[in-house]
Specification:
The complex is a heterodimer of chains A (115) and B (113).
Chain A lengths: L4 E3 L2 E4 L5 E6 L6 E8 L3 E9 L2 E4 L8 E7 L2 E6 L8 E8 L9 E2 L3 E5 L1
Parallel strand pairs in A: 2-11
Antiparallel strand pairs in A: 1-3, 3-8, 4-5, 4-9, 5-6, 7-8, 9-10, 9-11
Chain B lengths: L3 E4 L2 E5 L4 E7 L6 E6 L5 E7 L5 E4 L2 E6 L4 E6 L8 E7 L10 E2 L3 E6 L1
Parallel strand pairs in B: 2-11
Antiparallel strand pairs in B: 1-3, 3-8, 4-5, 4-9, 6-7, 7-8, 9-10, 9-11
Classes of the chains: A mainly beta (115), B mainly beta (113).
């Protein structure tokens, strides 16, 4: 397996534009997580899915953020409209279980810069 | 909600020196996980600790769990440039692990020659 694949690796966009981040989890992993990393707040959980169903989106900062998982092999995180404070590294991770016991596999992240 | 505090926030050590990173939880630790992040890359799993007093080693990295103190430490012996990166601790917030991991803010380690 190629691991968790995220695209794009880098995204620079202007304030107000729509941004879509993509993630392909490891095949067979039932859980998918979206995290955001900033210097100030560290690694924060935004939302997670179980078998393509969103379980907890309480970490999503605002209505401008939305996430979908239309099938077991693909998820998107969308920001519309984007703002400079959304600049961060966004990670997708997948796992067999929500507990860390079976290990989370992280993607390489998408570095988003909103100017 | 559970919070993990890591110390120090950043660390610069000379190659060959030993160092320790600490992770303290605001609540009981049921499972503690150490990850390493190379600059510009994703997180790589290092070790898992689940029992009080447990100690694990991998190459020159040793992690311990002090359940009573709700704390874990990561010790690197004879540091090398390859150890440079961001070390993050993560924890299961519930005993039966049905919730995602919460993470500390990380400790940024630089190793200089």
């Amino acid at each position: 397996d190629a691991g968790v694949i995220q695209s794009p690796r880098h995204e620079v966009t202007e304030m107000g534009q729509e941004v879509t981040l993509r993630c392909k989890p490891i095949s067979g992993h039932d859980y998918l997580f979206w995290y955001r990393q900033t210097m100030m707040r560290g690694l924060e959980l935004l939302i997670y899915f179980n078998n393509n169903v969103p379980i907890d989106d309480s970490g999503m900062p605002e209505d401008r953020f939305s996430a979908k998982m239309p099938n077991a092999s693909f998820s998107t995180l969308k920001i519309q409209p984007s703002e400079p404070r959304d600049s961060a590294v966004y990670f997708c991770a997948s796992s067999l279980f929500p507990s860390g016991s079976y290990g989370y596999t992280f993607g390489s992240g998408t570095r988003l810069t909103v100017v | 909600s559970q919070e993990l505090e890591q110390s120090p926030q950043s660390l610069i050590v000379q190659e060959g020196k030993n160092l320790t990173i600490n992770c303290t939880s605001s609540k009981t630790l049921y499972g503690l996980y150490w990850y390493k992040q190379k600059y510009g890359e994703g997180l790589i799993f290092l070790m898992m600790l689940q029992k009080g007093g447990e100690e694990k080693s991998h190459e020159k990295i040793t992690a311990k769990l002090d359940e009573k103190k709700q704390q874990s430490s990561l010790h690197i012996t004879a540091s090398q440039p390859s150890h440079a990166g961001i070390y993050l601790c993560g924890a299961d917030s519930l005993k039966w692990g049905n919730t995602p991991l919460v993470f500390g803010k990380g400790t940024r380690l630089s190793v200089i020659a």
